[in-house]
Amino acid sequence: MSLAPRAVLVHRRTEYEELLARHGTHGQAAFFLSSRGRSIDEVARRHEDTRQALREVAAAVPLTWRSTRVERADLDRFLFAPEDVVVVVGQDGLVANTAKYLAGQPVVGIDTAPGRNPGVLVRHRHADAAALLRTATAAGGKAEELTMVEAVADDTQRLIALNEIYLGPSGHQTARYRLGDDGENAPAEAQASSGVLVGTGTGATGWLRSLWLERGSALPLPAPCDARLLWFVREAWPSPATGTSRVAGELARGQGLRLTVESDRIVVFGDGMESDALELTWGQSVRLGIAERSLRLVI
Question: Contact 122/263 with Cβ under 8 angstroms?
Fold first, then answer.
């Protein structure tokens, strides 16, 4: 007998909750903000909007379903099940934070601050939650398959991300490594830089786009569903021992970029989740390419 679907509501602490955790009381938080020229009223209003959205989304879950909630800070310890329908209530970045822990489960993005969030991934309002949950479980329900990027180390460690993967020193200073196409005979270039960024079409609205604009790159940015990645080296340093001839490129499905570490330590993390990173040491290598899995975003 198959299990009934489970709605997993993903959310994060609001700014108001973080202020209370730091300062203890509403009054102390209000004083702290006022000393910096801000009012707590707007922060408290956004907090209540988020709580109301969570309540309405929870109420929209069918009575025959199971449901649970998980906070962003607990995502790396939460076990998603195949029958889950994931409802992200919050910002676009929260969808990206969640995506790396999924394996094909449908995702519904609920925007709690329309006009404040870009709405690239959280495209819907909480009033639409009931209809979206039905779509997520219906045969032929409309969804987009968003391309993801993965990093696979030579010791089998693996990391998947929706927007981008960053490789470099944890302090964002200078790392030494060799960079080249994946393949036994592919020549690699010794480089020193503040890191390498490999991004998807979804990431083309964020960090990847900023590098693309900074470089004035002629490479066309990929769309979220395109099976194509772009990569850029950040601040490559030319010297007698290091080069700068390979600082940007694109990867199609089946192609890979390989980085071999020549520093004491390099971290690899995706979508800003530096607390959930791979750590590589001297001599280790990692391959970057399009992930086999994608994010199924309900539209």
Answer: no
User: Residue 184 has what pLDDT?
Assistant: 66
Task: Note whether 110 and 130 are within 8 A (CB).
Answer: no
Q: Retrieve residue 197's tokens.
A: 């960024």
Burial 238-269 (b: 16+ CB within 10 A, else e): eeeebbeebbebebeeebbbbbbbbeeebbbb
Q: In what order do the strands lie in the sheet with 6-11?
A: 66-71, 6-11, 84-90, 106-111, 295-298, 143-146
Which two structure tokens, joined as six digits, stand for 128?
A: 């639409």
- For residue 280, how many other CB atoms are within 10 A of its CB? 24
Q: What 3-state DSSP class applies to 197?
A: strand
Tell me which DSSP letter residue 168 carries. Answer: E
pLDDT at 116: 85
Helix (H, G, I), strand (E, B) or coil at 76: helix
pLDDT less than 50: residues of the chain = 1
Integer Cα distance of 213 and 225 in angstroms: 21
Q: Residue count of the chain, please give it.
A: 299
Nearest to 72 by CA among 293, 272, 294: 272
- Per-residue confidence (pLDDT) for residue 171, from 0 to 100: 76
**Residue 124 DSSP code:** B
Residue 1 has a pLDDT of: 47
DSSP β-bridge partners for residue 144: 297
Angle, alpha carbons 69-73-78 (nearest 5°): 55
In degrees, to the nearest 5, what angle opens at C-alpha 178 toward C-alphas 216 and 148?
A: 60
Q: 201 near 223, Cβ under 8 Å?
A: yes
Beta bridge partners of 173: none
Both structure tokens of 82:
């195949």
Q: What is the pTM of this model?
A: 0.88
3-state SS assignment for residue 80: coil
Burial of 166 (0-12, 13-18, 19+ CB in 10 A): buried
> CB of 147 within 8 A of CB of 226?
yes
